[in-house]
Amino acid sequence: MRIPVTYAGDTIMRRAMVIVAMLVLAAGFSQARASTVNETVTLSSGPNLTINSSFVGLSFEKKWLTVDYFTSTNTAVINLFNMLGSGVVRIGGGTVDTYNWAGIEHCTPITGAQVDSLAGFMKQVPNWKVIYGLNFASNTAVDCSNEAAYVSPDLGSQLLGFEIGNEPDEYGVGGNTLRDSSFTYDTGSDSYIPEWNPLKIAAHQYGDLVGPATASFTAGHWEWTTNFAYDEASIISMATRHYYGGVPSGGYGDPATMISLITNNPALPGDISREVSAVNSDGHSVASGGLRVDESGSIVNGGQWGVSDAFGSAQWALDYMFILALNGVQGVNFHGGGKSAYCPIFDNNNGVVTRIGPEYYALAMFSMIPAGKVVSATISPSQPFYTAYGVNLSSGGTAVLLNNKDTAKTMNTTVNLGSGVASATLMKLTGTSWYQTNGFTLGGAIITTNGTWSGSGSTVTTSGGSVTVAVPPYNSFLLVPN
Description:
The chain has two domains: 29-48 and 371-481, Golgi alpha-mannosidase II (Immunoglobulin-like, Sandwich), CATH 2.60.40.1180; 53-366, Glycosidases (TIM Barrel). The protein is 26% helix and 29% strand. The protein has helices spanning 11-30, 75-83, 112-123, 141-155, 192-204, 222-231, 255-262, 268-281, 311-326, 358-366, and strands spanning 36-50, 56-61, 87-92, 99-101, 108-110, 128-134, 159-164, 209-214, 236-246, 291-299, 332-336, 345-347, 353-356, 372-380, 386-393, 398-404, 410-416, 423-430, 441-442, 458-461, 466-471, 475-481.
């Protein structure tokens, strides 16, 4: 979990876009609910980047190792992980720096039995790997080595890498008192790299390293990721950073917060692209890990009720994942665990699943896209609340996501899935409002708290690869060539 920060980019522009969006929304309400707009989606030839087979992911606080969540008998959670296919689970968050091996350094203890339990859980989700967090703030090389030495053989080939610390660029910022405000990246006696060096040596002998798990794109923060990728190119297998879609502003179901979220931060593509370019130029090619956003969510600090737990966040998450993929990010881990508003999987703080959150629905739909390379799409005429994306499939043809966030317009959309495509499977993610907090469906069915789902797609035929579908308000359609 992270504290609020100011976004990179032009804040005035972002506020102006929200105001414009609210005016467009108000105009939409004045139209007949049955209004239909004819749209054409044109797929581009780029960037044609391969989507990582483990793109989807979940993130949990390290303290979740101390409750009955990651166990080999937690069938509901096991089912929910496996429903997403291949993925990455990250164990870290703010509590990674307040929990430590055997409770040393005055931290809450992590025990061998808890690591064994995590390993037992992972054996039930064989297509998933683990980013395992180690304490940075109050650790020693000996303690770090001892924990890594225990974790590595327990997780075996499912260990993707060790991540040391959480959001070090925000130590000493706001309410974070792990270091004082003079804490810097690499200069002075109170800085990150001199403390990182002995810990990295201790952990690296037992597995790959990832990092630096930074938080913000603002000046003085984003440089941590790019500098780290350059300085540590010989030792890390993947760079990691965090991102949240917005900050709380207003009360339950605040329209300004929701509109700001679903229109996405306009600076995000540029911010992400800058860091991906730096990471890849410093020796981390796409094949060797690249950049992963391994903690993410709709609204910081646990989310905002009526926004983070509502259907609009599912449609935001679909856009967001494609923005990341289009700009070369190798995956995203949505943060959760417990009862926070943004949880993909809500539980009772002790492992019993109580609700399936909107971001999980988005992950489930995204995971249905077969292997392929992402391409951008143009909608004509353009609409402020309608987006589209394509994936050139390895098996042939192009899968297309149509994401209608409009409150009033049905988008009657024509798109060509490829000249050789005779039919496609249509999967629908359906809601009734941005603010709907339960009852939205995937393939006509809810995803249950037992981790089961009975939904299905329908078959649509094409004419020379071209198909026209009417996408109602609050609907996301995924077309996958058969």
